[in-house]
């Protein structure tokens, strides 16, 4: 029997949230970047939630200098802890963070110090009944393995678009193979590959080279039954949703993402 999944959209403003809710999506992934911004938007977010019956997931702010763990502990960690408290006010159960630990670029000692900070974030999240998820940027599964070994409650947001960057083969395949139990959420968008932040194009599905069909089919075959966020422009969400549903529920697609 097909595993059911919930498809939502990413919002960067209250206007985006209302657009996505009106379009009939069951959840919206909102950006929670500062306490001030959250307080300003809170009443509107609560109104939309009550009016449309949606739920929220959250994405935190970008980290500061990724090579300065002492600064991250002093500034970024307290911010994330405060924002997790904000998220709890909307009954948010999953909070995604970028916390770059690609050992090709981040020194081993720095990466290890960052894992300690990540553990503190995860402990705070657990106190609020929130699952903290680290999102892959350019990392491979081997970069995340020490974090998963050390932090029992840490989840993963698998971004299949990011998986196409700085690599010959999309890293989503290895993450799915080696880290599947930790994958709690998906981010879906397309690009044309590349080796710099400017190549993270967030194109509509099908407009780049990411083999969305193959990756989703593998996740489906392994029993994935959680949430996935389309990280594209709000106007591109419904077409992306149709593509995902065809891959997920069309019986002619095999586990390898090809027509049987």
Summarize the structure.
This protein is α/β, with parallel strands linked by helices and 260 residues long. It is built from eight helices and eight strands.
List keywords for this structure.
TIM Barrel; alpha/beta; disordered C terminus; 260 residues; eight-stranded parallel beta barrel
Explain what this protein looks like in three dimensions.
It is a single chain. The protein has eight helices and eight strands. The longest helix has 20 residues, at 69-88. Strand 3 (55-59), helix 3 and strand 4 (94-98) form a beta-alpha-beta unit. The protein has an eight-stranded parallel β-barrel with strand order 1-2-3-4-5-6-7-8, surrounded by four helices. The relative contact order is 0.13. It has a single domain (6-249), classed as Divalent-metal-dependent TIM barrel enzymes (TIM Barrel, Alpha-Beta Barrel), CATH 3.20.20.150. It is an alpha/beta fold and 260 residues long.
- The coarse overall form would be globular
Q: Decide which structural class fits the backbone.
A: alpha/beta
Number of strands: 8
CATH class: Alpha Beta
CATH topology: TIM Barrel
Radius of gyration based on Cα positions: 18 Å
Widest β-sheet, arrangement of strands:
1-2-3-4-5-6-7-8
| Average pLDDT for all residues | 95
Distance between the termini: 17 Å
Q: Could you name the CATH homologous superfamily?
A: Divalent-metal-dependent TIM barrel enzymes
User: What is the succession of H and E elements?
Assistant: EHEHEHEHEHEHEHEH
Helix count, DSSP H or I runs of 4 or more residues:
8
Q: Please identify, by name, the CATH architecture.
A: Alpha-Beta Barrel
Strand count, sense and barrel status of the largest sheet are: 8 strands, parallel, barrel
Range of helix content: 40-55%
Estimate the strand proportion: 15-25%
Number of domain modules = 1
Unreliable parts:
254-260
């Amino acid at each position: 029997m097909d595993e059911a999944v919930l498809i939502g959209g990413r919002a960067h403003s209250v206007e985006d949230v209302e657009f996505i809710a009106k379009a009939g999506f069951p959840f919206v992934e909102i950006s929670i970047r500062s306490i001030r911004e959250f307080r300003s938007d809170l009443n509107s977010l609560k109104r939309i939630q009550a009016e449309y019956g949606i739920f929220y997931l959250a994405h935190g702010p970008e980290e500061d200098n990724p090579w300065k763990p002492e600064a991250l502990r002093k500034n970024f960690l307290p911010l994330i802890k405060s924002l997790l408290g904000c998220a709890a006010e909307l009954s948010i159960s999953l909070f995604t963070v970028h916390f770059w630990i690609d050992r090709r670029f981040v020194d081993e000692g720095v990466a290890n110090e960052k894992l300690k900070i990540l553990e503190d974030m995860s402990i705070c999240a657990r106190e609020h009944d929130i699952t903290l998820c680290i999102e892959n940027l350019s990392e491979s599964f081997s970069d995340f393995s020490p974090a998963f070994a050390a932090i029992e409650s840490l989840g993963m947001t698998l971004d299949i678009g990011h998986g196409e960057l700085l690599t010959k083969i999309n890293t989503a395949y290895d993450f799915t193979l080696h880290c599947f139990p930790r994958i709690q959420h998906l981010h879906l968008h397309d690009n044309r590959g590349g080796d710099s932040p400017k190549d993270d194009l967030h194109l509509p599905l099908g407009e780049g080279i990411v083999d969305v069909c193959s990756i989703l089919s593998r996740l489906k075959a392994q029993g994935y039954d959680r949430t996935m966020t389309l990280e594209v422009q709000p106007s591109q969400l419904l077409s992306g949703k149709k593509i995902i549903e065809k891959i997920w529920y069309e019986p002619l697609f095999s586990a390898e993402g090809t027509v049987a």
